[in-house]
Amino acid sequence: MIRLEAVGWTFPHADAPALRGIDLTVAAGELVVICGASGSGKSTLLRTMNGLIPHFSEGGVLTGSVTVGGLATAEVELDQLGLVTGTVLQHPRRQFFTDTVAQEIAFAMENFGLAPADIRARVGQLVAELPSTAGSAALRWLSGGLQQQVAIAAATAHRPRVVLFDEPSSNLASDAVGRLSAALASLKAQGLAVVVAEHRLRYLSGLADRVIVLRDGTVEAEWPAAEFQALPDAVLAEHGLRGEVRPAVLPPAEASGPSVAPEAGAGRSARPSGGQSGQPGAGHLPKAGAGLELEGVRCRLGGRLVLDLDRAVFPAGQVTAVRGPNGVGKSTLARIVTGLQKAEGTVRLGGRPLTRRARQRSSAIVMQDPQRQLFADSVRAEIELAASASSSKARPGARPPATAAVLDALDLADLAERHPLSLSGGQTQRLVVAAARLSGRGIVVFDEPSSGVDRRHLRSISNQIRAAAASPAAVLLISHDEDLLAQAADRHLTLQTP
Amino acid sequence: MPDALNPGLRGLDPRTGLALVVLVSAAVMSPTGLRFVPAAVALGAGLAVAERAWRRGGGLVLAAAGLWLGGWPLPAAWPGAVTAVVALACQFTIRLVACVGVGWHVIGQSSPTAMSAALRAWRAPRAIAVTLAVMLRFFPVVVGEARAVADAMRLRGLAGGRGLLRHPWLSLERFAVPMTAASLRATEDLSASAALRGLGSRRRPTAMFPLRFGAADLMLALAVAALAAASLAASALLAPWWLA
Questions:
Q1: B130 in the same domain as B67
Q2: HEC string of B122-187?
């Protein structure tokens, strides 16, 4: 179904090729996983399969041949390739072209000229397979998990023979990852060829037929599924792949209210329980006055109550994981504590109530899309800008870390003079994490800082998060990445729909 | 049939919306178009109320009222060069506000695919239909990215009046560069996804619900005709006081 022979690709104005000598075949009904470090060429390889390379990247050089469903991708029009392929991007909301679920699912079929009655029948069938809450809602109000399901339905509604996924689980909670896994199994059972570029491999272990590792644009290793599952962790680590990590076991944060999910075996509101594990910081709750406290915080968006906390404490010097399914108000909580979102209630830092403006001056955040947070013209200047903002507000005796040391710690030293906007996704993520750490603020929020980050760099990011907490700051770590939470978090606050 | 597939929820035909924008703009921006401004403002406010956009409806009426005060009573009460310039600006801006009030409703209520389908039904060239559809989808993306960059600047201490006054170009650059980059990346994903799903294809597109004029379109047409007639009658009967 997919055949790549000696494929190479060089982006316009690039010094070196992004892909070199790739040979790959994927049969109907087969699921192949492409993994590798950020910047290794996973997304680029997918783009050669759906024809975006070369049709959507003018000026590059494609060598070798790519055939999908019997079509040579370089020789046919993009819409012909669109008929045989479906593509699901990392951020589903970025690929939505319409406002409602039904319109989005119908979009490809309308453009490909299917009969209206057939479109309505197919849309009706796919909408019926979605949770009932999705059918009539506007796309922008759906949770990330539901948006992902709609994106899959929209990409497969016209019945393509090949489906390509670009890091589909990177922003999904565990329940949504379960639904993604079921969707992949269904596509495979229908005989479609499925290719998944991914960092998180655990949920694919029962589905994948082959695992391929890319490094610097070439195939570094390839294993059949059975062989891959038997690999020792040391081999996975050598290739920068994430192995089997058990879900992080963390003591609960001090919190109560309708938005707080009950602990297993406890009442509705979680209460501090002391240490449950050998996690750093567990077992001795700091005084509430030493960190960030929320009291009676309630927030409505579009008339809907999205967050309702009677009380929550985020101790300074500690990292509190904020968990919960997609759409329960985790990012809203982040916006409230950083002063970007109006809400009822009181927010105190170090025992002192803070206005929204004061919270903005006391906070730093790493957003889900870190490209929006790059303001300087080189990586070094970005670090220095963050450090200078910090030194102007530094606590007495605090000394910002040297720029060179930070760059080294994040594996960015070789890129110091590059423009931040020219970095790969993973490199950008690490740079913004470093800037947040250097900000010297009393509240630091990390919102999904490890999406698109491989195992090699996960450790450096968790070290930066720990360093931010030690500065000291109250750190909120919003993440579905159990690998990261196991390394970086001290306690957890799990949210639910209020 | 699921709610999502209920054609009864579609409201106005997008062709009615497009025709309305063209008609109102042509009437209000014509040399004698001031006489139609009150009717256009009333129409814009009425459409905002119909979609429960109370703030927009109220804002439109207040903006028009403010511009009317600046454009007519102000120079009458305080004749002078400054008030004359202000009055001239207000008299022009009030026309724009009237058009924006109607256009806002049409853009807000028309999905890119509906707009594209409307243009295709009118045999508009594919390049124009696709470009307009992409533009409609692009605006909310840019607005979203601009808000996010402004938030990030606020938290980094790079926003605020003092910085803007001391380093205006640097402040502008710090806002514009990441906003442009993030918007381009977001729209590249959007365009790539749309192109792969056949947008701009040479095939003849269809619509899940073929376009059809309905009762809502008829009611709007009658309301527009009544407002236009009332404007002409008012300008004739109330000549010294009516806008002209």
A1: no
A2: CCCCHHHHHHHHHHHHHHHHHHHHHHHHHHHHHHCCCCCHHHHHHCHHHHHHHHHHHHHHHHHHHH
User: Would the CB atoms of A116 and B208 count as touching at under 8 Å?
Assistant: yes
pLDDT at A83 over 70: yes
Q: Does B174 touch chain A (CB under 8 A)?
A: yes
pLDDT of residue A149: 85
Pairwise CA distance, residues B104 & A383, whole Å: 42
Alpha-carbon distance of A308 to A304, in angstroms, equals 11
The pLDDT tens digits for A113-146 are: 899 999 999 999 998 888 776 666 678 777 777 8
Provide the residue type at A254 as one letter. E
ipTM of the complex: 0.78
Domain assignment present for B80: yes
Residue type, A314: F
Q: Which residues contact A302 (CB under 8 A, 6 or more apart)?
A: A141
Name residue A366's beta-bridge partners: A446
Chain B residue closest to A129 (CA)? B2
- Tell whether B192 is covered by a domain: yes
Helices and strands (H and E) in chain B: how many? 10, 0
Vertex B233, ends B227 and B237: CA angle to 5°? 140
Match 């931040």 to its residue by tokens: A420
Of the ranges A165-179, A307-321, A471-485, B131-145, the best mean pLDDT one: A307-321
Is residue B142 in a domain? yes
B210 Cβ under 8 Å from any chain A Cβ: yes
Taking CB atoms and an 8 Å limit, are B206 and A103 in contact across chains? no
Question: Does B102 lie in the same domain as B22?
Answer: yes
Measured between CA atoms, the residue of chain A closest to residue B134 is: A97
Using CB atoms, pick whichever of A82, A103, A363 lies closest to residue B155. Answer: A363
Helix axes A116-129, A144-156, angle to 10 degrees: 150
Q: What confidence tens digit (pLDDT) does each residue in A10-54 have?
A: 988 888 899 999 999 999 999 999 998 777 889 899 999 999 998
Number of domains in chain B: 2
**Is some CB atom of chain A closer than 8 A to the CB atom of B77?**
no
